[in-house]
Amino acid sequence: MKFRKLQLKDEKDLLQLLPQLTNRQIILNAKELIRNKNCHSIVIEHEKKVIGFGQIYVCPTPVEGYFGIIENIIVDKSFRKMGLGKKIMEKLIEIGKKNGAKKIDLTSNPSRIEARNLYESLGFQLRNTGIFRLKL
């Protein structure tokens, strides 16, 4: 298995993988993800097929300096329970550090118990922030 940066050729595989993460419509533009300098997307490739994905956005703020936001961590259901989710997270944390992040946030649905246990095992702490969202 190989960990690497997202490439344009991965878009087809991701369109098959991402529905395992969410029931929402997948709006994927791999070219835009690659082009965005604040977005760092990685994949796990196995036998020329993408079986895992994750991304971190690293952005500056005027108060706290750089921070990261991890999004869309997914490992194909056929490859779970092999520690690949943890490896994706560790690589994203390292990318955040290399890009100056002083903290990293992520959100996780309360029903995703195993994922939340993984995040806690890596040192993430549940915060009571009352996240607000405006759909545009």
TrEMBL record:
Spell out the Gene3D superfamilies in the cross-references: 3.40.630.30
Source taxon at top rank: Bacteria
Question: Could you say which residues form the signal peptide?
Answer: none
* SUPFAM superfamilies the UniProt entry points to: Acyl-CoA N-acyltransferases (Nat)
All copies of the N-acetyltransferase domain together span 1-136
Q: Name one GO molecular function term.
A: acyltransferase activity, transferring groups other than amino-acyl groups
Q: Name one Pfam family in it.
A: Acetyltransf_1
Which InterPro entries would you find in this protein's record?
Acyl_CoA_acyltransferase (IPR016181), GNAT_dom (IPR000182)
PANTHER family of this UniProt entry? L-2,4-DIAMINOBUTYRIC ACID ACETYLTRANSFERASE, N-ACETYLTRANSFERASE
Descriptive protein name: N-acetyltransferase domain-containing protein
Name its species: Candidatus Falkowbacteria bacterium RIFOXYD2_FULL_34_120
Per the UniProt record, the lineage of the source organism begins with:
Bacteria, Candidatus Falkowiibacteriota
